[in-house]
Amino acid sequence: MPTISMISYYSSCPFESILDAYRTGRGRVIMRGKTDIELLDSKSQRAAIIIKEIPYQTNKASLIQKIAELVENKSLDGISDIRDESDRTGMRIVVELKRGSEPLIVLNNLYRLTSLQSSFSCNMVGILNGQPKQMGLKELLRAFLEFRCAVVERRARFKLSQAQDRCHIVEGIVIGLDNLDEVIKIIREASSNANALTCLISEFDLSEKQAEAILDISLRRLNLLERKKFTDESKFLREQIVKLEHLLSGREKILQLIEQEAVELKTKFSSPRRSVLEETESGQVEDIDVIPNEEMLLTMSEKGYLKRMKPNTFNLQNRGTVGKSVGKLRVNDAMSDFIVCHAHDHVLYFSDKGIVYSARAYKIPECTRNAAGTPLVQILSLSDGERITSIVPVKEFAEDQFLLMLTVSGYIKKVSLNSFSSIRSTGIIAIQLVPGDELKWVHLCTNDDLVAMASQDGKVILSSSDIIRTLGRSTRGSVAMRLKNEDQMASMDIIPTSMRKDLEISSDSSKRNRAKGSKGPWLLFVSENGYGKRVPLSSFRILPLNRGGLIGYKFSSEDRLAAVFVVGFSLAEDGESDEQVVLVSKSGTVNRIKVRDISVQSRFARGVILMRLEYAGKIQSASLISDTQTES
């Protein structure tokens, strides 16, 4: 049947929504239409949602019209066509999806925005003792049982009274028929009806009602057959009187009769359940409930275009190659950021004005490498001229984690991650900035981590995050590095606690270099002209903030630092790095190479070519990928 549908209940607390109505008399029952997902074209991976049943009181034509209106108003994405293929064999509404659309997300939107999912409220109010009262199922059944007991008792007493009255009359008629000749004689000799009535009462010891019944009987009923009928009726009435008196002798007998009648009604009128029970995560289904928490790549351009792609979009390439294009870019646009995250992650978007926004990673439409991407303004409520400069994926807002922020002018600030667990759609302040400064880098850290900061001139400060005071969101922070001339900060990365114990910090860097050689972990430097190198972390000593820094890279006049990473998180059996670095040029070309192919050199060396940029301009951004994030 088209309106059978399904009853949904929470998996975290099974049947709770239904039980609430049963316990308290107030609640709701969630009904869903029955749907299937069919693959229309295996090559293009186009799918369709097939609606086979709709909830109770839902009109099919109205449902189709509502879906069409939502698609036309762009309130419902991912649908290319809708048609009704219902016939006498059953309902079939086909909702065709666009290529690349996630069927479960579209289905959830149909549940949320249309009557494909409906809620039926329960408000069980009855009249109890003359007063309206809201009752749960147990109290309601008790009240109904008391009512049934009273009804059955009144019915039994009424039937008993009728049977006793009728039995009294029938017994009188039988006496008259047994003495028919005397009765006829009395009637014939009587001077009037009243005289005959009096004579019958006195002669046969009858009541007035019995005597009247004898006088009212017609002559044709004075035969033997009629006498037998009256005799049988008298016997039946006496049996009924005994049964009714037995029923009224105790409450238990009445309850047994009520149960018997209920079973008879169930046997005669009951039908199997038509609406099946379906388990769901919650009454209001969210997209996250059905989207797999898969790994993904996020890219962002300077003009604010986002793309979500599969991790294997970019294959591994050799060092020094040209790379593969990340896709279409607008005129005068360039790649800005490239991160690896998971679909369920909260992605924090930090703007140049010090404002932070938040959205789940899966909110970004998935696309191919050659697609143009989705404008950030369709996902975030950005103000005019505001640019997103850093994106940070967060799995959970742990109490022992912090966000470390670095501005272009060299100011650093540490804020508890919990401060960003609830971000309104219009964003909240992450850091206070002075005119001319902008927030550029944001990383997750703990108090036990080290932080590596580098300027465009190649100066490096390696410092401990525990010396950076935790501040509120509406503060500026402290000076991270003394910058000379027109130098600006170029990059920042975090050295986790697990790496700190591998470092042997000494005041004499030359002794460290001789002792440690090329053993990791390392700082990976990437220059704007596509050069790079690895320098052992042991080549740098820990410094306090507000210092000039140590030389990490000697640049020519035409080159500057683009990014710096801490590598050596993942090591192969030979002790070399298993990580990979993804380089993105301003023109959108992407190159993905092994870190182990990048030479380990001194702090003063120029490095090796990582990516040839004759036709691709400058390196715009770089991202590190571990061995667990490589192409399957």
UniProtKB/TrEMBL annotation:
Look at the named UniProt entry and state the broad enzyme category this protein falls under.
isomerase
Q: Please write the reaction equations for the catalytic activity of this protein.
A: ATP-dependent breakage, passage and rejoining of double-stranded DNA
Pfam families listed in its UniProt record: DNA_gyraseA_C, DNA_topoisoIV
Q: Which SUPFAM superfamilies match?
A: GyrA/ParC C-terminal domain-like (SSF101904), Type II DNA topoisomerase (SSF56719)
- Ranges of residues in domain Topo IIA-type catalytic: 1-290
Location of the protein in the cell: Mitochondrion; Plastid, Chloroplast
Q: Which family does it belong to?
A: Belongs to the type II topoisomerase GyrA/ParC subunit family.
Stated name of the protein: DNA topoisomerase (ATP-hydrolyzing)
Q: Which organism is it from?
A: Trapa incisa
